[in-house]
Automatic annotation (TrEMBL):
The lineage of its organism: Bacteria, Pseudomonadati, Bacteroidota, Flavobacteriia, Flavobacteriales. It comes from Lutibacter agarilyticus. One of its GO terms (biological process) is tRNA threonylcarbamoyladenosine modification. It comes from the Bacteria. This is tRNA threonylcarbamoyladenosine biosynthesis protein TsaE. InterPro entries: P-loop_NTPase, T6A_TsaE. Gene3D superfamilies: P-loop containing nucleotide triphosphate hydrolases. Keywords: ATP-binding, Cytoplasm, Magnesium, Metal-binding, Nucleotide-binding, tRNA processing. It is found in: Cytoplasm. The keyword Thylakoid does not apply. Transmembrane segments: none annotated. GO terms for molecular function: ATP binding; metal ion binding. One of its GO terms (cellular component) is cytoplasm. Belongs to the TsaE family.
Length: 138
C-alpha cells in the first residue's frame, strides 16, 4: 500500500494501516518531524484508547489500554544507545505478546525486530503532503 495524504486525511490513513497490517508490530520509519507520532496517535485512538497519547521519548515505551482492556505499546527508540538497553527492558516480550506494538526509530533495535513486522515508511513531500508506504514482511 502506497498513498499520499494530508493531515485532514489522517483518520482514513490510520484506518487503512490497521486494516492492511498483517501483524500487530508496526515499524515506523521516517525523518524527524515527518509525522510518525501524529499517525501513531490516530492509530491508537482508532484502536480504542481514550488516554492522552504522547511519544515515549524518555521512557522508551508507553502502555495504553483500549476500551476492551487490550494493551497497546508505543515505543520510541530515538534516544537508545544500544540494543542491550532494549533487551534489558524486555522488548522481545512486548514484540511477541500479540498486543499492538507501534515502534518509532526501529533502526536502533534492528536485530531484535520480528521478521514478520509491518514496515511503514513516511516521507514528506511538497505542499504538506506525506507519502506512506506499508509493507507486510512475511
Amino acid at each position: 500500500m502506497t498513498k499520499n495524504y494530508t493531515l485532514d486525511e489522517l483518520p482514513k490513513i490510520a484506518s487503512e494501516v490497521i486494516k492492511n497490517a498483517k501483524n500487530n508490530v508496526l515499524l515506523f520509519y521516517g525523518s524527524m518531524g515527518v509525522g510518525k507520532t501524529t499517525l501513531i496517535k490516530e492509530i491508537v485512538k482508532q484502536l480504542g484508547v481514550a488516554d492522552n497519547v504522547s511519544s515515549p521519548t524518555f521512557s522508551l515505551v508507553n502502555e495504553y489500554h483500549t476500551k476492551n482492556n487490550e494493551k497497546v505499546f508505543h515505543f520510541d527508540f530515538y534516544r537508545i544507545n544500544d540494543e542491550e538497553e532494549a533487551l534489558d527492558m524486555g522488548v522481545e516480550e512486548y514484540f511477541y505478546s500479540n498486543s499492538w506494538c507501534l515502534v518509532e526509530w526501529p533502526n536502533k533495535v534492528e536485530n531484535l525486530l520480528p521478521l514478520n513486522a509491518v514496515t511503514i515508511t513516511i516521507t514528506a513531500n511538497e505542499n504538506q503532503l506525506r507519502t506512506i508506504e506499508l509493507s507486510n514482511n512475511e
